[in-house]
Amino acid sequence: MKIGIKLCVLALLCCLFCFNGVVVGGRGRGRGRGSLPQPKTGSSAEFNVNSFGARGDGKTDDSKAFEDAWKAACGSTGTAKLLIPKATYLIGPVKFTGPCKNVESIIVQMQGELKAVTDLSKYPSDDWVEFGWVEGLTMIGSGTFDGQGASAWPSNKCPTNAKCKLLPTNVKFVSMTKTVVQGITSLNSKFFHIALVECKDFKGSGIKISAPGNSPNTDGIHVERSTDVYISQSVIGTGDDCISIGQGNSHITVTGVTCGPGHGISVGSLGKYPDEKDVNGLVVRDCTISGTMNGIRIKTWANSPASSAARNMTFENIVMNNVANPIIIDQTYCPFTSCASMAPSRVKLSDISFKNIRGTSSSPVAVTLECSKGSPCQNINLQDVHLDLSSSGTLAKSSCHNVQAKYSGTQIPPPCA
Predict the structure, then answer these.
(1) By CB atoms within 10 Å of each CB, which of 39, 203, 365, 390 scores lowest?
(2) Catalytically active residues, by annotation
(3) Residue 119: exposed, middle, or buried by beta-carbon count in 10 A (0-12, 13-18, 19+)?
(4) Are 54 and 91 in contact (CB under 8 A)?
């Protein structure tokens, strides 16, 4: 019987040894046809600004806590979440910059309200909150960036002085790639609300931007030297352009935006500085513009120092409600009392379409095509334009210079003779 027990134990040991041999040889050392795949590893971590000392009382400057939380998130691995809980945080100028070399993506969960310090001497540059040199940033939540701009607006001399000092922008994105911004609010910026500079693959949706109609230079979203930008389903009311498309942009889409008050949706101003890059590929569609100074505007400086171009632009299915200058090309742009020279603009405009633009104009001239006499517009198309005067009794008019536009479908006001 003892011999039988020994044989059973020996057989059991052999089985265990064989099993371990498969595991070690197959999975542990990666040998054999029966090797098992290595599981993918990943990690995620949350970085709460409160854990880094933020008070969230609306009185204490929490700038350092925000910077420390970002530094920890940017230095982590896998997916990092920067959490801004529901509270009111007072912060001065802060920079959230990369590159974040080992992070797959960063999520900024905006639940709280950020209030900007009002002392302008605390801003070394024209930024309040800046994100820069990060790939794969997602900002979501119902939080607010409150620039507290009312006290700063009287210091803005830019409407009358070409050499003015710029005030801080609420949120600036610089050299960002694959960025998503959804649901946030920007309130009462000292200058621009949101600015994109040299960004690639930016998607913004559900954004709310608000400032009084008389607040100077409070552009809603300004885009410059960027490509593949998509802005959708947002509500913007400011004292300047709801959206402004600056120089050097390509493949920009704006859709489902409600604009007003403000100066409308603008391309430009272009041609102010030497070495400006072209604008190529813009689509603005399915938008509503109400009570603004302009509707769709393309503006280029007279006496531009160098040649550039803006082409391949489509404005389609846009409703105008009591808008002054619903459609306007202005190539003699000069916002000051006088400019040094009114020589013709050297910005070439071409391949521009206005389709299904309808609603009401608060000014007698509903369509203005004021092109450069030095570089006349080319291939300007208007299709199904119906703009009545807000006040009854007379018809709206068109005004055209240095352009041979093409017309099709409904044309109210009548085309230029």
Answers:
(1) 39
(2) 263
(3) exposed
(4) no
Q: What is the DSSP string of 53-82?
A: T---EEEEE-HHHHHHHHHHHHTSSEEEEE
What's residue 255's pLDDT?
A: 98
C-alpha–C-alpha distance, residues 201 and 205, integer Å: 13
Is 401:369 a contact under the CB 8 Å cutoff? yes
And the tokens for 112?
């709280």
Q: List the domains of the chain with CATH numbers.
A: 42-149+160-206 (2.160.20.10), 241-417 (2.160.20.10)
The predicted pLDDT at position 2 comes to 43
Confirm if 351 and 379 have CB atoms less than 8 A apart: yes
Report the C-alpha gap between 357 and 413 in whole angstroms.
11
Eight-state DSSP code of residue 127: E
Residue 67: CB atoms within 10 A of its CB come to 17
Question: What distance in Å separates the CA atoms of residue 361 and residue 353, rounded to the nearest whole number?
Answer: 19
Percentages of the chain per state (helix, strand, coil), in multiples of 5? 10, 45, 40
Closest alpha carbon to 310 in 244, 385, 257: 244
Residue 265 predicted with pLDDT over 90: yes
**pLDDT reading at 9 higher than 50:** no
How distant, in Å, are the alpha carbons of 33, 103, 145, 290, 404 from that of 39? Answer: 18, 19, 41, 56, 65
CA atoms within 13 A of residue 398's CA, in its CB half-sphere: 18
Which tokens hold the place of 336? 């000051």
Distances (CA, A) of 275 to 46, 250, 265, 347: 44, 16, 24, 12
User: Helix or strand or coil: residue 16?
Assistant: helix
Cβ neighbors of 6 (< 8 A, separation 6 or more) are none
Tell me the Ramachandran region of residue 286: left when phi exceeds 0, alpha when psi lies from -120 to 50, beta otherwise: left
Of the candidate ranges 60-74, 87-101, 255-269, 340-354, the one whose mean pLDDT is the lowest: 340-354
Greater pLDDT, 219 or 27: 219
How far apart are alpha carbons 196 and 207 in whole angstroms?
14
The predicted pLDDT at position 342 comes to 72
Which residue shows structure tokens 């009392």?
337
CA distance 378 to 29: 69
Residue found by looking up tokens 């040199």 in the block: 133
Given a cut of 60, is residue 224 above it in pLDDT?
A: yes
Kind plus residue range of the DSSP H or E element containing 104: strand 103-110
* pLDDT score at 339: 73
